[in-house]
Protein: Non-SMC condensin I complex, subunit G
Organism: Takifugu rubripes
Amino acid sequence: MTADNEIDIKEAFQRAQKGHNNKAKLVASLKSRYNKLEDKTQFHEEFVHYLKYAMIVYRREPAVENVMEFVARFSTCFQSAPKAEEEEQQEDLSNNKIACLFFCFFTFQSHKVSSHAVRFRSCQLINKLLGSMAENAQIDDDLFDQIHQAMLVRVTDKFPNVRIQAALAMTRLQQPKDPDCPTINAYLLILENDSNAEVRRAVLSCIAMSPRTLPKVIKRTRDIKENVRKLAYQVLADKVHIKALTIAQRVSLLQQGLRDTSEAVRELVCSRLLPAWLLRLDGNIIELLHRLDVENCAETALDMLKAIFKATLPEELQQNKVQLDSRRLIPVDSLSCENVLYWRALCEFIKAKGDDGEEMLEQVLPDAATYADYLYGYLKSVPVLSEEQRADFNQLELVMTKEFISQQLIHLIGCLDTKEEGGRKRVLSVLQEMLGLPQTPPSLVFLLTEKLLSLIPDDHRCIQTVAEIISEVREPITGSSQPVDENESRRQQVQLAEVKVRILEAKQTLEECISAQDFTRAAKIKDSITELEKQRDQILQEIEESSQGDDKEAHTEKNDPETLLRCLTMCAELLKQLSMKTRSGPTISALMSSLVLPSIANAHPAVRNMAVVCLGTCTLHSKEVAKTHLVLLLQIAQLDEVKIRISALRAIIDLLLLFGFQLLSEAAATQAAPSSQSPDRQEVEVAATEQKADVPEDGAQSVLVMLSEFLDSEVSDLRTETAEGLAKLMYTGRISSAKIFSRLVLLWYNPVTEDDTRLRHCLGVFFQLYARESRVHQEVVEESFLPTVRTLMNAPATSPLAEVDINNVVELLVELTRPSALIKPSPNTGVCVHDYLAVRMCGEMLKDATAPEVRLYAKTLSNLELSSDETVRTDLQTLLQQLVQVVKDRVCLRALEKIISQLADLKEQAEILSPPRPKEEESRAGGRSRLRRGNGSVDTTVFERPSGSYISLVFLSDGENVPESLPVMRPSRRAKTAALEKTKLDLNPLIFQEANVS
């Protein structure tokens, strides 16, 4: 081997392939040789000659990667050490020659060649060259522009790896302050449109942060790929200060990151993003909460605090607790939205530890009785604003803040130790009193009722307690003072004396008649004595009432909207908290007749809505009540305001899920029977009783027609609620209809629902879960295939459905019906769903061989998973042979001939591999594989095409619920190592071989 200062280029490249060699020593040796040369042209040509061997290798071989690293380090080694002025000029001149050679050669010759390997290595080399330069390095402006233009072309390359290296190479070419920087424009375009996740990750790793790029990086936190989302959060944690984000952006990042479907993303948010924010705020959690606006994002703030507490040691939890006084309470004057939320989150986190956190909880929370008095005092201090005060924004904001604090204090009741009877009774007393006070804000009624019911274990006692509170709120006791009339009092005393005298006289006469045995007269006198005694008692009662004076009380019923809404809220929460096994008793029936049903006819929309919620919840506890009021709910779902219609629709869906569609026929029978209700109740349900005769015999059909009409509604909320309800009914098996499934598919693809995120998400999840659940469900999807395609093909140009990509829809339906997609494969290994689908499409093609959808069907046939059943293949081959005779389109013919050849190959393989079967089995198999199936309960009638404008959405499988492949025997570590060594590439044979560089 030659000396280090005389090492030649070939040997340098040979040694550079080995990872254990010292690259710095090789670079120094080759640099020493280079500096001694007067004419460096031959060196450049020889250097490039040996570099070409590495340039043609696309795979990420270790030897090639080492060579590229060596080339980059050698090309930039001339800027490493400071020199004298003359020497520095000479070094810069040499460096410029090297740089120009490599940059010009690889940028303007290599990056445009047809070989994707050379393009990839060219971009990689430029990336390494620019990355290896010093921070204060400078290059010529013309060279900068040429590199820039070349990489802008390569970031649009069709190979993802080339685009990745080109994007990385432009890292140091960015100019964040330039609003028209072409590099940043290219980066933003890649983040928005590039289909490869690794390319998007590469751009995220090198893009400079600026007000222009920040929203695009935040958007990548919602990327479809887990690795991209993870890197986006990491970039935000490392490069972006919390003050650079708006409140909405902070809340959105936490809300999505802490609830991400990927555990790795959630872990990164907890371990990188939150600590980075806290570090920039000096570890002040209260300040972090202040920057989140906790009043409008309490749940997100609680999730964030829980994540912080999980990463905090128990000792630090006690040190970082809120400032409590000697009673372990936050002073009322110091209460704020941030510290009370922190107090609640801390107590709930410690409470969740169970027995391990009991001692710590005692240090941050007082006993139940003390806290009850504290809560009572604060709730009573919440002011009640008049109409004039509500117009003052400052007053309204103050009340809203106090209500938020009150809500968090009420939530803390769940952390109290209520095992001690005295403390528990005190808490119950406070809750009951606050619910009965008219000054209690309406926003707290629901929460107070929930906490009250959670402290009462018995359902019947819960019903009785809430009924008493509702009675007190609805019919409060009022006192009335009336002056006592002395003349009236004297007259009553005289009447009393007269009656008493007459009673004594009558009794004496009665004794005389009995002695004389005049029993007839005695009976008459006895009756008169009874009447006189009644008069005496009546006079005594009047005297007693008049003597009470100021102590007289009266019950007045309140029917104002605020009182009714408060009572209905308590009733609704009671019905929700009751166990499903608890049936409606007399108390619930009384509440229904006196409160809920009259409120359905109330003029105030909020009152009607809450009454419908109560009615719908009550019907879930009793089938008899459901049958009685189902027609009323159906009428409300069609006639009232949108919000109330949605509440009624939810109740109807819940009833159908619980009791099934037979409830409709039973309800029709109940409505047709003679009514035995009280007159008051009949007056309340006049609208329902007037239309008893209008209930159709087929109730299920009428309800489905109503729901299908709701799918065409212009109100997005009603449309979404209906689609979600139908999806639930189909998934649970209450409905099995290809017609409805077709409607849901069309609704999912309809451009009208483009902005309806909830609808899109619901249906997207439903399609996959429903089709993969069972073969029966796949048969429903298969039945909907042709109606869906016909609807789209026949859509007029003015319809939004004309914009839908039919190929996309067909791909979705084919994927949903794949036999391999079933979570639990069907035990029937004969005819599969795709076999039926293939025969249906062949039949449609035979009807009209010139129809425009024939080419679509021919293409789809090649994507089906056909079974290996002999009879199926024979039948399909027969049909395909007939199609070949009638179809004239060349594209269709090629597709059909390809399928025929595939079926023939499968048949030959099956004959070779399969042993002959007995005749009995063949007959059974033939009977089983007949490609005809009765409609059964599946409705295949096509709905009318919806009117109105409708997004075409590409079906992307997220990998959920995919059946796992069969376990494969893993090779040993030694075998894998040996196989890896065999695949390693050695460039030495190529270098020693004469290369034609011309």
